[in-house]
Specification:
This protein is an alpha/beta fold. Helix content is about 45%, strand content about 10%. It has 13 helices and 8 strands. It has a 6-stranded parallel beta sheet with strand order 1-8-5-4-2-3, with helices on both faces. The two termini are about 35 Å apart. The relative contact order is 0.12. The mean pLDDT is about 95.
Length: about 400
């Protein structure tokens, strides 16, 4: 255990069924005019969630306007356009309503609403300019409607620059949400395939933060609990989306994973998936992670098995009497069972247009855009190693 760490978690979290109504009464609303950021799919309007949020804000003395163009793999052009809308309408906070893509976009819009230049000027990876946004960001309110990324409890935001095929995660202390309201009742409407994709994303956030070389006691505790909750309840929620017990447990696992992302960090599994969905935008992030996962984590477990037995046990696998290597591989067995139980075992990279000839380019992209995550991966991976993992996954 690494007992040398910092702990910074400034987000106020209101968690529980029915909590959305507290948006109308909370004294912690950070402004009087919100830019509400939602996805382009129309789901927030169709489900009535947008109208409820607008009504709650009005009850709490806040006006709002809506920006509704966010894609599942959010684009830099919409960040900059949304920031322009916030400035033009003199919004003093940004509210992200929806899945991880929407809340990530709200964070990035909040930065660009008060800082000059282009969004990519501030990113630290790839072709980013590496500048510091000296004016921070507008306050951010996060209201997730999926148990998807944990972005309500961390500073990270992932945006794609399509012309250079770069998908980069970034954040700082100003991109932590000021207030997050997690109401599992808002997650009942998520369809089975999206429940599976988003749930697997949370699962891998938890696994990766446990394996990362920057792990710490609190992230370890929360990550293992989240892994266990997802292994138990994600298959239930995929089969019966109306189960409030499953939705609530997954919502908490999601928030736990976000806290873990604040205290520890993802590893290069995410770098490698970002390359896939940057170059092939039709790949849902959770699906990409799942398709790479057995190959990726097998590669790590074979070379550094130390932390994998804990993950296997968290998922309910018996490890008594096994060698350390076989205890580690019990996690791979549990992972394969989970993937099958949520109906994602038939997904293949080739289904989304990826060809074997693309794999080296994907490895190069992963190192170029999100190379920092390779540095905290518990096995040192080279470009050849990453290519070999893509090859395993492709096969």
């Amino acid at each position: 255990m690494n007992l040398n760490f910092s702990y910074y978690m400034p987000t106020r979290i209101l968690f529980g069924c029915g909590k959305l109504k507290e948006l109308g009464t909370t004294p912690f609303l950070p402004g009087k005019k919100a830019l509400i950021v939602i996805g382009a799919s129309g789901a927030m309007r169709k489900q009535g969630y947008l109208d409820r949020v607008i009504g709650c804000l009005k009850d709490n003395g806040a006006d709002s306007i809506v920006y509704d163009k966010i894609e599942p793999n959010p684009l830099v052009e919409h960040v900059e356009e949304g920031a322009g809308v916030a400035r033009k309408n003199k919004c003093d906070f940004v509210l992200g309503l929806g899945g991880g893509s929407t809340i990530d976009s709200a964070k990035s819009i909040a930065v660009m609403a008060v800082n000059p230049g282009r969004y990519w000027d501030y990113l630290a990876g790839g072709s980013g300019g590496g500048k510091t946004p000296t004016k921070g960001a507008l306050p951010i309110v996060a209201i997730p409607t999926t148990a998807g990324t944990g972005t309500e409890a961390d500073p990270w935001t992932v945006i794609t620059k399509p012309d250079t095929q770069e998908k980069i995660g970034w954040g700082n202390k100003s991109t932590f949400p000021t207030l997050s309201i997690i109401d599992p009742e808002l997650m009942v409407s998520v369809p089975p395939n999206q429940t599976a994709y988003t749930g697997m994303d949370v699962f891998f956030h938890s696994v990766e933060t446990y394996l990362a070389t920057v792990n710490q006691p609190t992230s370890d505790h929360l990550a293992l609990e989240a892994v266990g909750l997802i292994a138990k309840y994600l298959p239930i929620a995929v089969k019966d989306g109306s189960s409030m017990e499953a939705r609530t447990k997954l919502a908490w696992a999601n928030t736990e994973a976000g806290i873990c992302e604040s205290l520890s960090c993802c590893i290069s599994h995410h770098s490698m998936e970002h390359a896939v969905s940057a170059c092939f935008p039709e790949v849902p992030h959770g699906a990409g992670l799942t398709m790479l996962s057995v190959a990726y984590f097998s590669y790590l477990a074979e070379r550094n098995p130390a932390r994998f037995p804990d993950l296997a046990r968290a998922m309910g696998e018996r490890t008594e009497g096994l060698s350390q290597k076989n205890q580690a591989m019990a996690f791979i067995t549990a992972l394969q069972k989970l993937i099958q139980s949520v109906g994602l075992d038939q997904h293949k990279l080739s289904d989304f247009g990826v060809q074997r000839s693309d794999l080296r380019r994907l490895a190069e992209n992963a190192f170029h855009t999100m190379g920092k995550l390779f540095a905290i991966t518990p096995v040192k991976l080279t470009l050849d190693d990453a290519t070999a993992i893509y090859e395993r996954a492709y096969a």
